[in-house]
Specification:
The complex is a heterodimer of chains A (about 100) and B (about 290). The radius of gyration of chain A is 20 Å and the shape is flat. Chain A has one domain. With about 100 residues, chain A is an all-alpha fold. The longest helix of chain A has 24 residues. Chain B has about 290 residues and is mainly α. Chain B has 2 domains: about 180 residues, no CATH class; about 50 residues, no CATH class. Chain B is built from 13 helices and no strands. In chain B, helix 12 runs antiparallel to helix 13. The longest helix of chain B has about 45 residues. Classes of the chains: A mainly alpha (about 100), B mainly alpha (about 290). Chains A and B meet through helix 1, helix 2, helix 3 and helix 4 of A and helix 1, helix 2, helix 3, helix 4 and helix 5 of B.
Chain lengths: ~100, ~290
């Protein structure tokens, strides 16, 4: 069962980085400068997760990927929420791909 | 609220328990509500995983176990690719580790937030323990080597809270992290865990659906799902951009830096992401920190 071994190994090495900070940070007071740094992480993480990966979200169709992303941003800006932007973006991409396919 | 009329300590205790239970229930409800978009996003993102795993000749059970035990999208897709290319298991595991080191950063932020809020069972107590903890730190010499730990009131959560933290750590992903840190002022383990379980169920359901039914989907639908998680990241980020300009600079800066690192090809893609996130945040805290003091 080599696949099962692989899965077990991957499970261990994915859990360690997730757990370690929880173990290390309990019972410590964090310096304010470090806290400020941590407060910025969500924004930088989201930025780095979206750019540049989104370009290849739909392989071979960077413009359709960008159209999907733009749809999500516009809906989120004016209507808020998460489900509506996601569903609309997926729908837009689906329609564009179907239209392109003809 | 009928119980409130009953006097005596017994009554008070039950009131507190009832209130606590109600509060916990609310945390769970909020977590599930917050997690619903990820459930949808993960469901559509894991369908291709199930499909590809089946195409790669992996059994349904193994495919399911991948999602159950690893629960890391990018790594799971990568593992399928590498397996197909005939790469040894040890190398795949090492690559997985490198890709997932970014969770160190995310878990640190989450752990710090949970820590800030103290034990979820009593807000006032948290303040006390923190003070005790600080005084303990300034005079470490006073600790006797024989019994240093149990004597000091520890800020750690009691048994069930600790277990929640261990479970919540497993569910940390890019998406659950992003939702947890932007959604709520007060982060609690129960809220985080409920959010994660919701996302997790979507991931598992999509994996099985993809394995069993994925081939029946039209090609456009399969391709269209690639955008789902990016759309979600964008939808999480957009309200933050509306709120503050610094969020825009930080996100754009990290994105540009990440692109540059990708072009330079100095490090692996896992490291590129970590460096972009961490170094942009360092630059940001330097820049905005200076500004504040002026």
């Amino acid at each position: 069962m080599p696949v099962l071994l692989l899965i077990a190994g991957m499970a261990v090495v994915t859990y360690i980085p997730r757990l370690l900070p929880f173990l290390l940070l309990t019972g410590r007071t964090l310096p304010p400068a470090f806290k400020r740094f941590l407060a910025f992480i969500p924004y930088t993480a989201l930025g780095a997760l979206i750019i540049p990966g989104v370009i290849e979200a739909i392989p071979g169709h960077p413009w359709i990927s960008l159209a999907g992303l733009t749809t999500a941003v516009v809906i989120a800006w004016f209507r808020g929420g998460l489900i509506l932007p996601v569903v609309t973006a997926v729908g837009t991409v689906f329609l564009l791909l179907a239209w392109l396919g003809r | 609220m009928k119980t409130k009329n009953r006097a005596g300590q017994e009554g008070e205790k039950t009131i507190r328990l009832v209130e606590l239970r109600e509060k916990n229930r609310q945390e769970v409800r909020e977590g599930i509500r917050r997690g619903l978009p990820v459930l949808i996003g993960y469901f559509s993102a894991s369908i291709p995983f199930g499909l590809l795993a089946k195409a790669g000749g992996i059994s349904l059970l193994d495919t399911f176990l991948f999602s159950v035990l690893v629960f890391a999208g990018a790594s799971q897709f990568m593992a399928l690719n590498l397996l197909q290319a005939g790469v040894a298991a040890g190398e795949i595991i090492l690559a997985t580790f490198l890709v997932n080191c970014r969770h160190l950063v995310m878990s640190t932020v989450l752990a710090a937030r949970l820590r800030e809020n103290g034990p979820e069972k009593a807000g006032e107590k948290a303040e006390n323990t923190r003070e005790v903890d600080r005084s303990g730190k300034t005079e470490p010499g006073r600790l006797e080597p024989g019994r240093p730990e149990p004597e000091r009131p520890r800020p750690e959560r009691p048994g069930p809270g600790k277990l929640l933290t261990f479970l919540a750590a497993f569910g940390v992903t890019d998406e659950t992290f992003a939702l947890a840190v932007t959604g709520k002022e007060r982060l609690t383990p129960l809220f985080l865990l409920s959010l994660e379980v919701t996302a997790y169920s979507g991931w598992l359901a999509g994996t099985i659906t993809g394995f069993l039914l994925g081939a029946a989907l039209p090609a456009e639908a399969r391709a269209g799902m690639g955008i789902a998680l990016y759309a979600m990241f964008a939808a999480i980020l957009t309200p933050e951009l509306k709120k503050s300009r610094s969020a825009l600079f930080l996100a754009a800066g990290a994105g540009i830096f990440h692109t540059l690192l990708g072009r330079l090809r100095l490090f692996s893609s896992g490291w590129n992401l970590i460096l972009a996130i961490v170094l942009t945040a360092v630059a940001g805290s330097y820049f905005y920190g200076e500004k504040k003091e002026e």
